[in-house]
Amino acid sequence: MVKLYDGGAYLVNGTEIIPESEGAKVEQLTGKKADKKEARKGTIAYGIMEAHNTAADMDNLKIKFDAMASHDITFVGIIQTAKASGMKKFPIPYVLTNCHNSLCAVGGTINEDDHMFGLSAAKKYGGIYVPPHIAVIHQYMREMHAGCGKMILGSDSHTRYGALGTMAIGEGGGELVKQLLCDTYDVACPDVIAIYLDGKPNPWVGPQDIALAIIGAVFKNGYVKNKVMEFVGPGVSTMTTDFRNGIDVMTTETTCLSSIWRTDEETHKFLATHGRADAYKELNPAEVAYYDGVVYVDLSTVKPMIALPFHPSNTYEIDELNANLKDILHDVEVEAEKISQGKAQFHLVDKITDKGLQVQQAVIAGCAGGNYTNVVEAAHALKGKSTGDGEFSLAVYPSSQPVFINLTKQGVIADLMEAGAIIRTAFCGPCFGAGDTPCNDGLSIRHTTRNFPNREGSKPGNGQMSAVALMDARSIAATAANGGILTSAETLDCWGDVPGYTFDGSIYEKRVYYGYQKGDEEKSLVYGPNIKDWPEMSPLTENILLKVCSKIMDPVTTTDELIPSGETSSYRSNPLGLAEFTLSRRDPEYVGRSKEVDMIEKARVAGKDILAEEPELQDVFAKIHTIKEQEAVKPEETEVGSMVYAVKPGDGSAREQAASCQRVIGGLANITKEYATKRYRSNVMNWGMIPFQMKEEPEFEVGSYIYIPNIRTQLAENKLDDVKAYVIGDDVKEIHLYTAPMTDIEREIVEAGCLINYNRNRK
């Protein structure tokens, strides 16, 4: 059972939940009257944020982190941006892992060139470099850097180490650049939601099952959006830390800002096993702590779960799905038709056999699935069995070489291989479409992080489509043991006998470059031919003219749709090359439209007559001149940019390229009803685009122009609650836009044209 409380609540002595409306009970239990303001300070999250806050108060935080982490499809751009902004060294431990473009399979040398760039940067600036196949980013950070009371920032959305007492946040690269320049992470103090765990998980239930049960309950209603999830209650101590890590990493899919767990001797044991016992301290809420909401989870009632395509929140109990296969799968097929826009077909109902639902592929991998406990449990289910010689296949990726070594020594890997599983090295590819892409029309079940449309690598535009359902490793193994027929782990009786884990860090000592505080400024960065500098971007002018280059009316637009993952990741060191893929799976004409607008802006900056360059602008400016007080507006002094309208963009990845790709080919603003995540909105601002919102339905189309006067002044004066704009069509129609609150620095970044310009201006 997962229950959401209406409104806030007090937690007394870590065990008693008292709704705010019944606050008098607090005094009965403690002898003190409930003081909401003081009790807010009693959360674990508050104490950690306070310790890292450099602002004068706790209302608007200015956070400095203890460490940072990036992988090989983000660190090149971050370092290039920081270098262009004047960075001389890494001021805090900065881990550069190579777990995304590890295969070096696309584009010739470009992936390994990025790796060599990363190594050279670690040597020059004093970083920590983890070579390909050694560890996925989050497992390495769990093993080597997370600790109780710390805060870590990562350029990957699944940066979550709450189960180790660390508040970790996944953000776009611009926020990491700010830390590299000794600036701060600025955010309004977030609400804190208690995730109260009660009871104990059944032996056949794994961390993914619990995570999916929570995601299914809170995602669609936004219960924890941009808030901190604080895991408390007696149920925490019924799980190992490895198990907790598997739940924690999936909190990203709720759209929360961060997570934190109470710690105990089990946490201490995990850190001590990894040679870092000194990183432990007990973290618990105060005697009285106030939470802005409560999610109550009775762990004993959670059953094996599945998240069907095309989102981790599309959750069902496996038993419920198996009892209603036709109806539920038909609904997924209808959604697939919308996603493919008629360019490809995807079927599930035809996979129903007299034995059940036939699955084509299974994967257990990454920071969610490849953990030690998950792989051991999967091996128990498959020992002495066979995955079969038909269409079904199973691949297992241990999350780090130390995990792999331990599994090998204990015979677990042999048991899996004897059953027919393919064992691979630590790699994040199955999570974002760079490894194990299923066959066309195939269904893959995965213990990974996401199952967004086509994130597994299929391309509907080319007439092909496959999809992913998320499950726990235990039910995946049960399915594999049943020849690929969808099967709940509850049908087997082999769970729970997990031998103790011994950490062998020798591979890290031999292969990881530890350069923190050892940077040599005289060393050179190693560039491959695909690694390009950021192009110049214009500062904001007083008045702007936007051309609508895409209009997306879907309820949610993911970052995977804004800039696809998969093989495009290989081009993330080349801003203009990567930008060619912007919205390619959602609106293939967008890039051409935006580049045409960008050519106009470049002509304006070069001093050319843009009315002569683009004759349709003659009529546009003639109509602008009919607007009161805009009679003298000059085209040469009006920045021209492209604009995307989307209802709710940015769900999913932290990748800054979802915004930077818009910017480098002419993007100047977005207009939305709301932003799906803080991190995407932050990326938009860091790349110099204005994060407009609009309450009304958009009465403009692709090709329309929108004129916004006095925007630079309104930004400078922070008068953005009602921005008057004009749609220029057959006539001139006034509309009203606004932005959610922006910090002073965010407004200055947008005025400068991007974070790079802002930092250059500060020199």
From TrEMBL:
Transmembrane segments: none annotated. GO terms for biological process: tricarboxylic acid cycle. Residues 650-696 form the Aconitase A/isopropylmalate dehydratase small subunit swivel domain. One of its GO terms (molecular function) is aconitate hydratase activity. One of its GO terms (cellular component) is cytosol. Its cofactor is [4Fe-4S] cluster. InterPro entries: Acnase/IPM_dHydase_lsu_aba_1/3, Acoase/IPM_deHydtase_lsu_aba, Aconitase/3IPM_dehydase_swvl, Aconitase/IPM_isomerase, Aconitase_4Fe-4S_dom, Aconitase_dom2, AconitaseA/IPMdHydase_ssu_swvl. Keywords: Iron, Iron-sulfur, Metal-binding. Coiled coil: none annotated. Residues 48-477 form the Aconitase/3-isopropylmalate dehydratase large subunit alpha/beta/alpha domain. Pfam families: Aconitase, Aconitase_C. Monomer. Belongs to the aconitase/IPM isomerase family. PANTHER family: ACONITATE HYDRATASE B, ACONITATE HYDRATASE, MITOCHONDRIAL. This is Hydratase. It comes from Coprococcus comes.
